[in-house]
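Objective 1b: paired records.
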Amino acid sequence: MGNSIHFHDQYLAAWNEAMASGDSAPIETFLSPDYHGWLGSEAAITEPFDAATAREGFGGTVSALRGSTVHADFMTVTPRGRD
């Protein structure tokens, strides 16, 4: 997938494709079987989630917001640290 900027451009394009069609499959291709993440902006109150939960969330989002577009004017990509 190359460098971070290229990856995020591809990810945003996949979101826009999904939002146009109502099918979350373009976004789901970015998930590995052992995908996991955290929801929240403060480390002390984040909630973990896995690939199945992410797929369910993607499906609900593209269904509810079909026809919308996704964009990012500014991006800061950093590894998740202790804080």
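Objective 1b, second protein:
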Amino acid sequence: MRLPRKLAIAGTGLALLTLPLVGATSASAATPTVATATSLGYSDTLDGWIRASLQVMAQNGIPGSYDGIYRNIIRESSGNPWAINNWDSNAAAGTPSKGLLQVIDPTFQAYHVAGTSWNSYDPVANITAACNYAAQRYGSIDNVWGAY
């Protein structure tokens, strides 16, 4: 369906394009779906977050295993998605490490994987971005055995 367009001229010499609100469809107004554990059919638990992340990683060619992800999460955050490091050099510089895999915001943004949340505390987004970073830097999260 083609929507009629109107051109309005404001007194200041600005041209404004106005569109009628009629004709909007649910598809055009829909919010894109973000991959979460539950949206992908997994439980909203550490196990589900890892499994959902592995699914997104597989779809994006990012290597990693359940064991490698789990090992690093336990070391970095003990499985707490709200963990934040407010005491190291990153925190002192204003960019504390956050989430399950303790990612700083610039790294999270640089290695964010499309289709996941832009919230660095989101478990699936945090794991997937961290694994994407680890893949680029170390070949895989499986190769990470300490702070990275």
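Residues 123-138 form the longest helix (16 residues). The helical segments are 26-29, 46-59, 66-77, 89-92, 105-111, 123-138.
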